[in-house]
Amino acid sequence: MRVLVVDDSRAMQQIIRRSILKMGRNDLDIRLASSAKEAMEITQTWMPEVALLDWHMPERNGLELMSDLAMLMADIEFGFITTETKKERLEAAIEAGASFVINKPFKTAALHEELEPIFEKTKDLEQRKEQQIEDELSNSQGLVVPSKDSLERAFNLLSVHEVRVGDGESEHFSEDWLPCLVGLFSYGHSRIISSVIVLDIGGAFILGSGVSEQGLLNIAQAKSEKVLSEPVANQCEKAMQMVSMLIGEADSENPLELKQLSVVNSNINKLESIMNQRKTQRVDYELWSQALGTGRMVLLMNS
Fold this sequence. Notes:
Helix content: 40-55%
Oligomer: single chain
Radius of gyration: 21 Å
CATH class of the largest domain: Alpha Beta
CATH architecture of the largest domain: 3-Layer(aba) Sandwich
Number of domains: 2
Distance between the termini: 36 Å
Shape: elongated
């Protein structure tokens, strides 16, 4: 659970952080920001699931910052921990989408009471996304396994640095795959998933590094921190769309389309069970970039 705490008081940041850690959850990852600018920079690369904001800060107030962050991430959950007491401002925060407002000084129990349902809701959404992959993978028709050469040509159309594609080893999932990207494909308007592609963290950064040499340093840093940003995911979506053209039938009236691209941060066993279904054909590829090293891409189709 990725939680961003934004407060211009470093002492208050630590108080809030310690209060959250007292919930005793083993899935918490907390980062701190002292300004709106810092919060925006962290969100662009780290993609928090929950943001706890102060109201009175330099540059932008909490309500303005919430609007800015929501533009970057549509599904982020917000809460306010603030000295602000004016009723109209607190109501404005709730109307704008905040889940709660707590006044300083606050009690740890009160913060836990507000955060627990938010954490459970966010966790449930993550699990439902992962369950969808397993439940909707069904019989595919007319699908072809793309060659390494065709994939390499497609990926290099999208990248400023050279990408090579080779045979990969069929390995069990492990923590070093995470976070990974999972793409779900189906035909036209059909809701039936025909194939799935999984990119481990290395593969996601290779295909998601974009067309700017200037951005490679930031990408390399984000990779070392195991953070998949929205720009990386968006670039991977373009690569996935190229893949859909290679694995689908040559039928312009009913093309194979990428229906959903999700970031998976946990639940390795669930992904492992999907890959090991008896009727599922699995093809492993190794991706390589001189700038970003190696990564994995796995194609799943029902045989």
